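Task 17 of the worksheet. Students: predict the tertiary structure of the chain below and write it out as structure tokens. Keep your answer in the requested format; marks are given for formatting as well as content.
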Amino acid sequence: MPAATAASRRRSPAGPKAEQRVRDILRVGREVFAERGYERATTTEIAQRLGISEATVFTYFRGKRELCMRVIQDWYDEIIAAIETELPRDLSVREQLEFLVLMHLRLFLIQGTGLCALVLSEGRTKGQDLGEGFVELQRRYTAPLMELLARGQEIEEIRRDIPLRLLRSLVFGPMEHMLWEVVMTGRQIDVEASARDLVELLWPALQAPDEELKQLRQLRGRLEKALAGA
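Model answer:
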């Protein structure tokens, strides 16, 4: 059945059976897009793996683009929810940054490199195949880091002389490079050690110019209090 014809019959899932069908299509769609990438994946293969007709897929999704966008959206929602739920906001800016870097690397690799490669490749083409919805997903995903950097600027721990968008790129750029290396070579990395090393490298470039001096003054103050009370 042509996609245009099927689109006119597409409906939202109504009832437990239909909802389960959509979940099954999304589950298998995630597997196929992870294995094949966007260009090589087909709704025909997704239907065949489920033992249903391609027309049934088109009943709930207009076509491959919409289905892939929903797969990525659901994956992003899982990652964003995990970050927002687990981000330890009582820690220092640097410690929260290390947490975000660790979670980014861990969650992007937790299901293997297939979806990671799909998202990275679409990101490099600015989501041309998947449309503006992909750009909005990336904006939502980077929001926790942007908020952390903004708070860091407010309390003068993060430098203010560079725009936030460039600071964001400074953090995400190296992480993307690390993920691409895993995708391209298949070599596994020590995620926790990589996160610590990356933040150790980035922090001097992110922190306010006088932050190190302020920390030294705070340390001197604590030492003077300790010596006075000895």
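Marker's comment: The radius of gyration is 22 Å. Residues 66-228 form a domain with the Tetracycline Repressor; domain 2 fold (CATH 1.10.357.10).
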